[in-house]
Amino acid sequence: MEAARTPQSPATSPLGIPAVDIVDVKHVYPPRRPSRKAKTQSTSTEPVTALKGLSLQVNDAEIFGILGPNGSGKSTLFQIISTLLHPSGGTVRVAGYDILSQAQLVRQQLGVVFQSPSLDVKLTAMENLIHHGHLYGMSGSTLKQAALDALKAVTLSDRANDFVETFSGGMKRRVEIAKAMLHQPRLLLLDEPSTGLDPAARRDIWQHLTRLRNDLGITILMTTHLMDEAEKCDRLAIVHKGELVAVDTPDHLKQQIGGDVIQIDSDSCQSLAADMKQLYPEHPINVIDGRLLMECEDGPTQVARIATEFGNRIKRIAVGQPTLEDVFMHLTGDKLGDA
Ligand code: ADP
Ligand code: MG
Predict the structure, then answer these.
(1) Which of 102, 237, 257, 335 could share a disulfide with 322, CB 3.0–4.6 Å?
(2) Is the residue at 232 inside a domain?
(3) Which residue has the higher pLDDT, 195 or 28?
(4) Are residues 225 and 308 in the same domain?
(5) Is 43 in the pocket of ligand 1 (CB under 6 A)?
(6) Each residue of 153-169: pLDDT tens digit?
(7) Which of the ligands is closest to the CA of residue 85?
(8) Strands of the sheet with 97-98, listed across from one edge
């Protein structure tokens, strides 16, 4: 079994080529045509700039997350990397192959798991894989063996001949992953893999993804708007409104905040925040989802001081380590907004 690579020393392929190399990618969607059916649906007569010149590199055998709130451009980038959408500008290379001029070679390197389900639930797991293999030009005993191997990789060998409609949400997602692994790609692309799954199923999917990376050296690139999912990636790109805000390990990103985050529940968060800013002009103070957050270096000392000064306006005060939500807020002034 190959040892997990530490994110601090990311490895490139033997040729020194990044698994994915994204350089200055822009994308502008043309104006949407008004739909005749849904008269009330909002339609834009303006073009939408989804990506504003984004660059990043993903190394071999790392689990790389693209973290951003809904609408930040993650799925647009996902579709560009998977060769389904031509970018308005910039270049993307997968294992050294250009997504525009070498799309076929790029697709051979990629296994793709879309956010929306793509399984036929009236077929068995095995039948779903066989159908998919035919689309890839695979057949016969080679295909059968590849399907068995892919189901084994997500520990579904014993359910191969069961109908997918009898599977839990997490098991269905694992069949999706098996499907994406069928042609033995080097890179697995997943759009929001945990969305819609319960916590146990999320943990299970993660165990499988980590195993694919550790045992087979697969590079995993996923998009997510979920903090707990982002937390588990080796490295993260934080995106906001089509722009890259930061790239680093989750720990390094959190260290940017340098200290603690004090959380306060109050009936009058906004006015309390205004008064606290007088006392702490140098500390970032924000109100998110009706909760006041202040970054500071010596949390416990400041909690005592705040309690003395503002105790009668505080329902609850706590001090904790910064989360990726705090990092996102710190970097963008916006909230990540876990759905
Ligand atoms: P995310 O996956 O981070 O939620 P998307 O890439 O789906 O973000 O969307 C980025 C922006 O592009 C949003 O403003 C979204 O409304 C817009 N957008 C996405 N798809 C289309 C499309 N097909 N046509 C026009 N605008 C789109
Ligand atoms: Mg999306």
Answers:
(1) 257
(2) yes
(3) 28
(4) no
(5) no
(6) 899 999 999 999 999 99
(7) 1
(8) 48-58, 20-29, 89-94, 97-98
